[in-house]
Amino acid sequence: MAASRATGLTVAVTGPTGEIGKPFIAALERTREVSRILGMARRPFDPGAHGWKKTEYRRGDVLDRAAVESLVAGADVVVHLAFVILGAGDGSRHVNIEGSRNVFEAAAAAKAKRVVYASSVAAYGFPDGGGLITEDVPALGHPRHPYSAHKAEVEEVLDEALAGSGTDAYVFRPCIVAGPQAPLLVNQIPYVRLSGRLPGAVRALFDQVPVLRPVIPDPGVPFQLVHHDDVASALKAGVLGRGEPGAYNLAGAGEITMRDLADELGYYTVPVPDLAVEATAEVVARLPFLPDEATWIEAVRRPVLMDTAKARRLLRWRPRHDARETLHETVAAARGDLQPA
Ligand SMILES: NC(=O)c1ccc[n+]([C@@H]2O[C@H](COP(=O)([O-])OP(=O)(O)OC[C@H]3O[C@@H](n4cnc5c(N)ncnc54)[C@H](OP(=O)(O)O)[C@@H]3O)[C@@H](O)[C@H]2O)c1
């Protein structure tokens, strides 16, 4: 360990196998200042299969404090990506809140130089009020959206855990992350989920017969996208301690709507008037037995757009992909996955 500290940074990463984790590790693998990467998630994973040479992987749960302490021992920087995104209801609270607390407290106890944490635009809680959200807006979360509430609470947990320690925190708040390795956006559209389960021949029919083309609702609300490689470059800036510690919004240039997404997919959209979205959200809020995913309606009720000037100014962050390019790449990759076998 002493040798690796002398030659470069040792970086411990929770959740290195996810949509952000894989492109991020690939970026760290190419970073001269990083000599050793230790990754931990629950399922089996082979870093060698991805051509990663500096990365050692171990299986472990962030809820297991001893496993977390062992992961971060001797790390210069601890990056926390492990989280439950979909299905972030009460059942996942312990992973998101207590798991994160374990990671942050262990990082401070191990005297890591920095913690880099991937929070989210959702931490702001989808505030009303128009205009671009800057990092000065308090991250209060949304009481009806568990993921948003968890994201806000975890930022507080981070402050508590690092208070009085010598460990700095870089907190990144990306908008929806997309790109060829991040199909979550496309996969969460209900039709796509259904079509993925259809036999190949039936799916081919759906693709060819225009009248059967799927329809997705478009509330007309603009949203931002950020490419996973651009998130990776921002996280990397945090790992290297560029600029100064603090919170940073991340979004690619430009905005899109569900209509743009449907156009890319070759789907139809039906406009959903504001009132219908509002009414649906009210209904969702009153039905505790609905799946957690339904609470995502909160995310499309009103525009939630972020200002990214701070990351550009202090971290010299230069996202290479705008929203439309990111959308195009995401759909092109997802379309390949949806082709009939
Ligand atoms: N994707 C987005 O659009 C987006 C946008 C904004 C912010 N973020 C944030 O960025 C972070 C990473 O997101 P992602 O998209 O990469 O998520 P993801 O694709 O769902 O990956 C989650 C990662 O965490 C691991 N994990 C989950 N539970 C764990 C546990 N109990 N112990 C150890 N590892 C665990 C998973 O592996 P195993 O399941 O094998 O354990 C996987 O490596 C999250 O904090 C997320 O909230 C994501």
Which distinct ligands sit in these coordinates? NADP nicotinamide-adenine-dinucleotide phosphate
Indicate the radius of gyration in whole angstroms.
20 Å
For the residues shown, what is the average pLDDT? Answer: 85
**Overall body shape:** globular
Terminal CA distance: 48 Å
CATH topology-level fold name of one domain? Rossmann fold
Regarding CATH, which class of one domain?
Alpha Beta
How much beta, percentage-wise? 15-25%
What class do helices, strands and sheet pairing give?
alpha/beta
Q: Helical element count?
A: 13
Helix content: 25-40%
Q: Summary?
A:
39% of the residues lie in helices and 16% in strands. Helix 4 packs parallel to helix 5 and helix 10 packs across helix 13.
Give your account of this protein's structure:
- This protein is α/β, with parallel strands linked by helices.
- It has a domain at 2-178 and 225-253 and 306-321: Rossmann fold.
- It has helices at 2-7, 21-29, 65-72, 93-109, 146-162, 184-187, 190-196, 200-208, 228-239, 258-265, 274-286, 309-314, 323-338; strands at residues 9-14, 34-41, 55-59, 77-80, 114-118, 168-174, 176-178, 215-218, 225-227, 246-250, 268-271.
- A seven-stranded parallel β-sheet has the order 3-2-1-4-5-6-10, sandwiched between helices. Strands 7-9 form a two-stranded parallel sheet. A two-stranded parallel ribbon has the order 8-11.
- It is globular, with a radius of gyration of 20 Å.
- The termini are far apart.
- Mean pLDDT is 85; it is low at 1-5.
- NADP nicotinamide-adenine-dinucleotide phosphate is lined by residues 14-21, 41-43, 61-63, 81-85, 95, 99, 118, 120, 174, 176-177, 182, 184.
